[in-house]
User: What shape does this take?
Amino acid sequence: MIAFGPVPSRRLGRSLGINNIPPKICTYSCVYCQLGRTLRMQADRRAFYEPEEVARVVADKIARTREAGESIDYLTFVPDGEPTLDVHLGREIELLRPLGLPTAVISNSSLIWRQDVRTDLLAADWVSLKVDAVDEEMWRRINRPHGSLELSSILEGVVAFAREYTGELVTETMLVAGVNDGERQLEEIADYLGYLQPDRAYLSIPTRPPAEVWPRPPDEQVLHRAYWIFCDRMERVEYLIGYEGNAFAFTGDVVQDLLDITAVHPMREDAVSDYLARAKGQWTVVRQLVAEGQLVEVEHGGHTFYLRKLGVSRGPRDGV
Ligand code: SF4
Assistant: This one.
């Protein structure tokens, strides 16, 4: 299936997914991959489908989606593998342009040291780059890269791309307990991302059954600490922790709003009070959510914060 969805995505609205790589061909075999172990490790770019065929299938899917009265906000390359392995990626983006919808690419960054990959990605409107590690040993442990790849070249490639790119650049950092969630590791990743200054830095956790049995999400305290370490270096940091939270959800439904907002940012006690005052809600709701295990109270810098309890699985394909 070359085109699927559209699926709702907090980051991209209603996103029509494009599968430009057969399953599962990747440059990495991440320990947390929800697709299981990589079937074919590959680091050379090649052709998988004719670009005209991809554009035709996507155009057809758009037409059928619109006929059904549904809207689409983004055309997103999010295959069951690494989209930049497709040597025709740039041409496909070009062929999709006349369809009048913005394009997004969710990449693991592994091939961005290549000029042709950077050139292809420059044509997209929104690009997400994975940065789970800036330390060689940690990178090998978590992403299990193809043997020909070098972390230093990838990190340089990400910086080179960020300098040139005029679209919206976001990063995604998957935190795995005991691997990249220590204070020092978080500081190093945050220093690098702080230098990069993406439009937004996402912190994610494994929420669905991973490729291996051992990867676990960090606990809420650690995730909260990671958030503040990132916030010290970047303006816009958000969680991607398994819920489609909306940071700006003030619908008046107190329970849903609190769960939505805290799925994206921790909420300080006084912000919760302000919200409750505006929504005419009571603190008993918050206490109830904590008692039910839906919200967690954490202390930071002399303040109490509330964040969404981790560990509930998302539906398929909502990682976009
Ligand atoms: S880069 Fe993505 S598709 Fe490839 S192994 Fe890692 S999580 Fe899976």
Q: What stands out?
A: Residues 312-320 have pLDDT under 50 and may be disordered. The CA atoms of residues 127 and 320 lie 11 Å apart. Residues 26, 28-30, 33, 35, 38, 81-82, 108 surround iron/sulfur cluster (CB under 6 Å).
